[in-house]
Amino acid sequence: MVQYNPVHGSDDGIELVDASSPSRNRRMPPPPKQRRWLRACCGASGVAVLMAIIAYAVAGTAQQPSLARTLEALQITLALLLAPTEPPPDPAKKACAARNATNATWHAFADYESDSLYLLVPNETLSTPFTVIATTRRTTGRDAGFAHYGVGVEDSFFTLREAAHGGDVRVTRPPLGVRPVTDTYEAAAEDGLGAVGWVATLPKATDCGDGTSVYAAWDWILSQGASIVNVPKRCKGELELRSVQAFPRNIQFVVACSLWDVDDVYATDPAAVEISYSLALLPEDLMATRRADDRVGFFGSTYEQLGPLPRAFQTGAPNASYADADRRVNLINRWRLEKERDCAARRLGTHRRKLLCKPVRAITYHLDPTVPAPLRPAVKRGVLAWQPAFEAIGFEGAITVVEPGDDGWPSDYDPGDVRFSSITWLPYPDLGLAIGPSVVDARTGEILYANIVFGEG
Description:
six-stranded mixed beta sheet, single chain, 3 domains
């Protein structure tokens, strides 16, 4: 048997002692009674020293205090020394008090001292579906290293479900790749698929007392990449939460990694990156879907359908049958471009005369302030060159472009706010291309937000 014992005066302070070594080489502890006596002596000595310090302090005064005053001072000093320290404020409670004044539905709060990140969700919106958007927004070196995550049908569609016990919530990704059509198939799918898609758990931290619950989200956002970025595989360095912002329809988290292992087509060498995660709430009123036409190219969403094709998707051909129905459904991704109702009514009374209608909501792109001023007129002309295509289908002013300084420029513009589709310029000399990712409601194919990015190259 080998034991490690401290040796006073040795070079390394450790002595190897085996079972045959004489006991005189070991420092044996004192007997129990002696230890109690030593502790009592030490305690009495400490009190004596404390009293001596106080006596010395008051002795230096011009007027010697009485014994009663000395004892009173000693009592106050001992009370201060023995008083329990106040615990630090609960960061979850701080999250409730720090909710910003914006009209955001969900809020977020970061406490950097305790490495805490909280998601504040009103209870009535707990089941609201949302999408997760992740984009590399900044990187070192000459390569832009662009990567966009969560742009597929199932990759970006999430819901929160309350756990059966404990008040925590489950982050789930419903299997939208398979969708039932009829009530019978829907019941069967619910029976068979159940809660498939549970990807993370957000522990409940506290209640704000006004119908809002606070959930811990540090691990899910930073370590798990919001379930759409493989952070353990990609990040070989340190992770840091840079900022948190809440907007009316989304929350944005900016996370930095000191060494990112890039394996996409836009960059080759590892670099430090910043990734922006956005949790964006999806619309409550669903847009009407439109099935893709194989004769025209579209970005779209594809799913396998359970049950017969819905009536809106049937061809109506007399020789069509259920046996040869296409069980794979392709929906096109498109903007919700709708004509004003009064304009549609006037058009019915014009006997098929050409009449352009203004849209209920135009497709609007915002020229981000990063776009150099000399380039803005050319970029604006390029976007508005699509106007005749919309006029051919009866729309007037279907697409618009605003830039800083215009009357229509929003005062609360932020590139992280999903209400504002934007055109951004990045100063990377090796970036000789442009990309235009869009965020889509996976249920209908509605384009909710788009960001066109082009570089100096």
